[in-house]
Amino acid sequence: MFAVIKTGGRQYRVVPDDVLEIGKIAGEVGTIVQLGEVLVVGADTPVLGAPTVAGASVAAEVLDHKRGPKVIAFKKRRRKNSRRKRGYRDEITVLRITEILTDNAKPSIGPRPKREKVAAPAAEAS
């Protein structure tokens, strides 16, 4: 089963356990968020929305908030001694798609537990 969702002005085709980077959305790391703008739900018989599929949503776990690569906008006007350099970095949220929901269902899968790092016991000094 797959779905086409719309967020941040872009459309993404997602299946469960996909990891994708989208524009920043609200949500703490480790929480489950629901994305409500579902344009298509596909299975044996795909359901097309007009413009969205009623009662469908996609549940996703927030993995990380980070910044994207640096983008430089450099403009130069030759022979005019005029230059301008601007740069920016997009704010990005990394999501893992947990499930595709239909018929106004609530997410049944909670956030996955984090793996604990095993530290070697330190030798005690006498």
Structural category? mainly beta
User: What are the secondary-structure elements, in order, as H or E?
Assistant: EEEEEEEE
Shape: flat
Structural domain count: 1
Radius of gyration: 21 Å
Distance between the termini: 61 Å
Q: What's the β-strand tally? A: 8
Specify the helix fraction band: under 10%
Helical element count?
0
Strand content: over 45%
Strand order of the largest sheet: 2-1-5-6
- Averaging pLDDT over every residue, what do you get? 90
Any key phrases for this structure?
126 residues; mainly beta; four-stranded antiparallel β-sheet; 8 strands; flat; rRNA binding; structural constituent of ribosome; bL21-like; bL21-like_sf; RNA-binding
Written overview of the protein:
With 126 residues, the protein is mostly beta strands. It contains no helices and eight strands. A four-stranded antiparallel beta sheet has the order 2-1-5-6, with no helix packed on it. Strands 3-8-7-4 form a four-stranded antiparallel beta sheet, with no helix packed on it. A hairpin with a 2-residue loop joins strand 1 and strand 2 (10-14). The chain starts with a strand and ends in a 25-residue tail after the last strand. The model has no long low-confidence stretch (mean pLDDT 90).
List the helices and strands and how they pair.
Elements (H helix, E strand, L loop, with lengths): L1 E6 L2 E5 L4 E5 L8 E4 L2 E5 L4 E2 L8 E21 L4 E20 L25
Antiparallel strand pairs: 1-2, 1-5, 3-8, 4-7, 5-6, 7-8
